[in-house]
Fold this protein.
Amino acid sequence: MFEQTFTNIDDILRKDAGCTSELDYTEQTSWLLFLKYLDALEHDKADEAALEGKAYNLILAEAFRWDTWAAPKAPDGKLDHNAAKTGDDLREFVNDKLFPYLAGFKQRASGPNTIEYKIGEVFGEIKNKLQSGYTLRDVIDRVDELCFGSQTEKHELSHLYEAKIRNMGNAGRNGGEYYTPRPLIRAMIKVVDSKIGERVYDSACGSAGFLCEAYDYLLAKPGMTTADLKTLQTRTFYGKERRAWPTSSRS
């Protein structure tokens, strides 16, 4: 479903002077995927609130939302080329306005367990390496084709991202990540046999494979109560990665 899109994105990134390895391809794809996923999450939350007759305030200001700067749509649902930034305008917007705005969320957030804080963490540690705004436009158009509406789509994205991490290790450059196969992860989790109420921490979480599998393991335990589920979702899983997005209770 997503594999061909990822391949196409890598082919585009190879042409940009700012990206020289698999490490760069993964990093630059990641921040765009993050913003695309955040946009989908925001729309889901807004729809849920509307069904309940409640108001929902979007996290990002309008100028910095995906469907404003990255993929504005015409009435027919296709990209509005007159409104979509490209070339130097796009690159300068991303470098001089978008990234500083998103990095500032860390200081404006009410606490470290909020989405706002995590946004600030992500964009305080990463930068746009693409030197051509036209290349950036091509990559954005490919990312915009992706949808994250179903669990199948989310799982496929997770597995493809882990494959990219594995390729980073094969690429050398001392930038390698060490990928642990899922069957081995599941075996280790069974041996540890965590209980509801205990904290699960991964100090080198990478794509959070251990945390995701630990969540599935605990969720399958019999006798799960509503209180247990809330504990599992908000006060159980913690992780850190040297140059990645902190994971905290959100596997």
